Amino acid sequence: MTNFIKLPEPQKDLDFPLMKAIEKRRTKRKWKDSNLSEQEISNLLWAACGVTHKETKKSKSRRSVPSACNSQEIKVYIALSNGVYLYDEKNHQLIKILAKDIREYIGTQKMMRSAPVGLIYVSDYSKLKAFQFKKDENKWFTSATDTGFISQNVYLYCAATDLSTVILGLVDRDKLHKTLELNENEKIVYTQVVGKSLDN
Ligand SMILES: Cc1cc2nc3c(=O)[nH]c(=O)nc-3n(C[C@H](O)[C@H](O)[C@H](O)COP(=O)(O)O)c2cc1C
Questions:
Q1: What are the tens digits of pLDDT across the range 81-132?
Q2: Do the domain assignments include residue 4?
Q3: What range defines the domain where residue 101 resides?
Q4: Which pLDDT does position 1 carry in this prediction?
Q5: In the predicted model, what is the mean pLDDT of residues 138-143?
Q6: CATH code where residue 172 lies
Q7: Most exposed of 7, 164, 172, 194 (fewest Cβ within 10 Å)?
């Protein structure tokens, strides 16, 4: 079994006006019973936190979203019908971490279980090393803020391409943490479901 899936190049020339995407952005809780294509997953994850500026000898890479001190502490996992993958943004690929369908744990609302894609935003506290993150309270606050940027990019991409999405705070984080076999430095912040919109 291969543990890596190289994603197709993201379609950065997708033509949709930013102001229209902002106007169209909406929480939508209904979707078609069909999977997203690899291209859509590639675009979605690149929008979420893809690398927009590669690292150099002098500076760390930059992503599509800001993060406090460029900590890049939020990792994005994607739950699909055939398993859970970690988005490795540096290589724009998926790394398989679990070969089972865990989407029933993506949120506690029943309707969320049927979403074809579940994104899981996990903060890696070990990356929040600067003095201002010393207290756990500050780590959590920063993680929630940085997750918000990622989620909004996902919302905007969805608005531009007729996908439905919902960010979820109603999550059994302990259950999902155990299911993903995360360590104690890894904290689940929010999840977000995505599916093809029923409107078109
Ligand atoms: C931090 C956060 C957590 C949320 N959690 C949930 C949730 O668990 N379940 C849900 O159905 N919607 C959730 N929502 C979506 C909100 O209900 C939605 O954004 C709000 O009703 C406004 O609608 P709009 O996004 O279409 O403008 C959440 C939104 C935010 C920002």
A1: 999 999 999 999 999 999 999 999 999 999 999 999 999 999 999 999 999 9
A2: no
A3: 17-52+62-196
A4: 54
A5: 97
A6: 3.40.109.10
A7: 172
- Quick check: is 177 in a domain? yes
Q: Is 52 helix (H, G, I), strand (E, B) or coil?
A: strand
Is residue 3 in a domain? Answer: no
Mutational test site, ligand 1, from 168, 172, 173, 197, max ligand atoms within 8 Å of CB = 168
Residue that has been written with the tokens 């102001």 in this structure: 19
DSSP 166: E
Residue 44, SS3 per DSSP: helix
> Quick check: CB of 30 below 6 Å from ligand 1?
no
In this structure, the residue with its CA closest to atom 13 of ligand 1 is 168
Number of folded domains that form the chain:
1
The verdict on residue 103 lying in a domain is yes
115 touches ligand 1 (CB under 6 Å):
no
Q: pLDDT-derived band of residue 199, with 50, 70 and 90 as boundaries?
A: confident
Cβ(123)–Cβ(136) under 8 Å? no
Give the mutation target among 108, 167, 171, 190 for probing the ligand 1 site: most ligand atoms within 8 A of CB.
167
Q: Supply 6's token pair.
A: 């190289």
Q: Give the dihedral sign, CA 8/14/18/19.
A: negative
